[in-house]
Structure formats: C-alpha cells, structure tokens
C-alpha cells in the first residue's frame, strides 16, 4: 500500500459557480470521514472563480476507488453534472 495524491479540477458553467461550490462543499465532510482519506481540501482559483480545485491525499489507490463509489460522491455526480463545464483528475505519487 502506498500513499497517492489527487488533484481534481472542476470548472463551473457560467452562472453556476455557486451551485457547484455548494455541492463541492457538501462532499468535504463525508469524504474526510472515509477510511483512507488523509487530506481532502477544496480551493477556489483566485483568478478564475469558476475553477475549483481539490488537493487530496489517500492511503492507497484502493481507498480512492472506494471513495469514487461512495454514496455521497455518486449523489454529487448526479446533482452537479448540469453545472460542470469541464473536469480533470490527476492521480500522482510523491517522488521527492
């Protein structure tokens, strides 16, 4: 088991920034309680307020996979799909 990090970026459609923000904020608490979650921090881009960025650390890829299948993430995906213009997920491991 080796720790992994994730950078997840979601860009709201114009006019849907606050709906997306509320939905993203709603998954922070439940996710931080998940087994294997080491860090789960939500940020907003200072220069592009439609862009939201999660910095995440997980105990393992298995923990991240379980997170992706969790009830609160599934509900978030269904609710927020209409507000998201683009999304990007980068899964990385620390090398130095």
Provide key terms for this protein:
alpha+beta; 4 strands; globular; 35% strand; 96 residues; Alpha-Beta Plaits; 3 helices; 4-stranded antiparallel beta sheet
Structure write-up:
InterPro entries: ABM_dom, AI-2_Isomerase_LsrG, Dimeric_a/b-barrel. This is ABM domain-containing protein. Pfam families: ABM (PF03992). GO terms for molecular function: catalytic activity. Helix 1 (about 15-30) packs antiparallel against helix 3. Strand 2 (about 35-45) and strand 3 (about 50-60) form a beta hairpin. The protein has one domain: 2-Layer Sandwich (Alpha-Beta Plaits), CATH 3.30.70.100. Strands 2-3-1-4 form a four-stranded antiparallel β-sheet. By secondary structure, the chain is of the alpha+beta class. Helix content is about 35%, strand content about 35%. The chain contains three helices and four strands.
Shape: globular
For the record, the CATH architecture stands as 2-Layer Sandwich
Q: For the terminal residues, how far apart are their CA atoms?
A: 18 Å
- In the CATH scheme, what's the topology name? Alpha-Beta Plaits
The secondary structure category is: alpha+beta
